[in-house]
Input
Amino acid sequence: MAPPLDFSGVIAPEFSNQIIEEVLQQSVALRLAQLMPMGTSISNLPIPSTLPTATWVSAAGGRKGWTDLALTTKTLHAEEVAAVTAIPDQYLEDTSINLWNWVRPRIAEAIAVALDSAVLFGTNAPGTFPAGGINAVAAAIAAASTDQVATVNNAMGAVEGQGLPITGHAADITVRSALRGVRATTNELLLGTMQAGDSEVPTMYGVPIAYSSFTSTGGTNADFFTGDWNNLIIGVRQDIRYAMDPSAVIADATGKVLVSGFQDNQTPLKVWARFGCVVIKPVTRRVPAGANPFAKAALVAKVTPTMAEADAEAEAEPAAKGRK
Output
């Protein structure tokens, strides 16, 4: 039997909309992509495969030129992302703490992390999602010899050179520091902060930048993506839903029962959502065969401490606290 968890929470019906709103706040993919409601589990998207051309008619009454215009389809498959846990009844009955306020953002974050990992890097992604995610599609941009801002500009130029606009950036949270620290030759900070009322608006070169803690950085994986995010389509078949059943059973992949709600005095909780994903390579005047809507770069070197360094840091921390 699985050990009982040391937390719980009751999700009342009025909170279900709050969960999906929190996913929208935390998920890079949902913040930047074009969202499309799905009425069924499979949806076909009409995509232009050719662009029309117009020709001048030199003579009065001359025959007008014929132009081609065609559509193809991309298919969205709604795939399920879910989490199942069990809440000991004694926590529901005896606690005086509102554990829901603790549980709710973590459930939302789990969905956001799973979605971003699949969309950006293809990690544990369903077979119908783009293989390798945006990381596999995006054009790789080498680091500029000047600074990170120059690398960002070069990445944007790679997309714009194909006739596509830049609609946003996605970056790992560590990129914040790299961009904040860039200075001009006269030592003043190069990038300012855009304000809207009393709030900061994360933008760069006039378009929004969404930060998240990427699950895959370093090596061949990027920590910065830019491009025309209208060509990333996220289909939303079902927003986050939940079900609680005190008599439900939780089993592993082999069918072994881990939790019996009735027998173990636990209340199983199931949370799930259904999303689809496709990346479009749109036809443009410059790239009639289909342009690449994304570019990527590594702006921050990933530093992983060795085991000895991690142990030394852990040992030094209590000593440092004792000296205060």
Q: What stands out?
A: Residues 6-11 have pLDDT under 50 and may be disordered.
